Amino acid sequence: AASAVPGYSPGFKKPPAMLRLKRKRLRRSEPAAAAPPPCGAAPRAPSAPARRNPFSSLDNAPRAAGTPQPRERGRRPPAGGSPSAAPFWQVGPSPGLAVAGGFSSRDEDLHLPVAVPKVPSSPRREFPADWSIKTRLLFMSSQPFTWAEHLKAQEEAQGFAQHCRATETNLPQSIQEPKLSTELRCAFQQNLVYWLHPSLPWLQLFPRIGADRKIAGKACPWSQDEALQQVLMSDWSVSFTSLYNLLKAKLCPYFYICTYQFTVLFRAAGLAGSDVITAVISPTTRGLREAMRNEGIEFSLPLVEESRTRKQKNSEVNLETEGANSLQAGNSMEDGEEPAPSDDDDDESFSWLEEMGVQDKVKKPDALSIKLRKEKHEVQMDHKPESLALVKGTNTFTLLNFLINCKSLVAVAGPQAGLPPTLLSPVAFRGGTMQTLKARSINAKARVHLAYEDIFSLEIVGPVMPHSLHSLTTLLKSAQGGAFSAVLYTHEPTAVFNTNLDNASPALNKETVCKDLPTCGLHPKTLDQLSQSPALGKSSIRFLEMKDYAYTWKS
């Protein structure tokens, strides 16, 4: 009976029949309707009725007049994120923006990695320190970023000199002609500089976690040469030791060690609310933690302890509630009734078996079983943010020696085999190479309330460290008249570095601890921000906006 139905195609094996059926139905239901042709298509003849593509979803149905038609063909999905993420022009100060045209050839990959959160903060004059490493920044403004383009050779050289000499640059609140401001352009170049080791121009050395694809196929002569690996690691150890000595002398505020498995952040005393040198490692594994314990390194797991404390508080509240309920039930019990035994305490949970005389007949968990149960819980948090390890004070020097001699610090197989970890620092160090973040400006036309407006954006690509994020936003505050927004792309394994570790001592004298930090090479306002206790938790800033010289952010 089904085969007698006209146009029937079982299993959709005959698409033409289905197409004819769709077309006939559409003609009967909308004999005179004519939808506007898509952007760039030739106008349809007046007599030809419009029909919908049967392979398209309902979202792709013909739109009403005045509604902008999105690009369908040739559109690339968002880089490193969800396909549903909004493009950059829809996340700016005007939420109703929709692209209508006027793209440059470099706009093809400008999409958000994740959807922007919906809960913003209250406006403030400063945003909290973000200790995660950003891989990309996308600033947007209604004013052009032409001042950041085509720096003159003298401006570029002056910017490098200002960075090396740690020159403090203080710009006015608003710059009338940013393109003509040599001071602004030199400061922009100054804030793009960072220091890296090792320097292998044909390899992308950040990020290292999950970078096997990008490194695979590249020339790696050390992968099978043990002598060359020893030379690279010896050179790396010298650079690592140099950075630690600078940190201890408060001549370097912080630095990162990026391995193929985990990242380490060393911070000088006085930063992140701590009065001693700290090192945070994430993510960690049970094997790494056991190796650190065997080397005598004292460390803590702040997020695990926080979770345990929270559970204990909840248990105490539940016990109090149960106790009150038990007392109430006991008052109403008949004589001779006894409450059920409790097994909350591992040491006393089996005492009632002895009273009954059956303790030898019931199998109790031995010490090994209890240990395995605890180890299972410990292994479950491996490679997760909860495995964050904190090392403080003199133990950081022991950690230095441990990392230099740690065999698992370098991959033994795969594309990263034999390649030393990446060192990232805001200041120069022995063996470090000066690098600059990549910057480019992008222009687009956007349709807002039936009119076209210019949307200008500035893209910064590279390992953007906390001090760079603050200094760049300070520059833009002056150059863009206190109005801009930014989408921040976070290297996710480092987002957990924003956890508040409660390092501050009750008798901490901030002036004494931060006395020598002004010589570390950072701007005083940036240093003041980084000295505050982290306030973002395990998250990081994803979206930052400034209006009337006040910040709001979303994480």
From TrEMBL:
Keyword Nucleus found: yes
Subcellular location: Nucleus
Start and end residues of each stretch annotated as Disordered: 1-91, 310-349
GO cellular component: nucleus
Residues passing through the membrane, by range: none
Family: Belongs to the DONSON family.
Protein name per UniProt: Protein downstream neighbor of Son
Superkingdom of source: Eukaryota
Keywords, comma-separated and alphabetical: Developmental protein, Nucleus
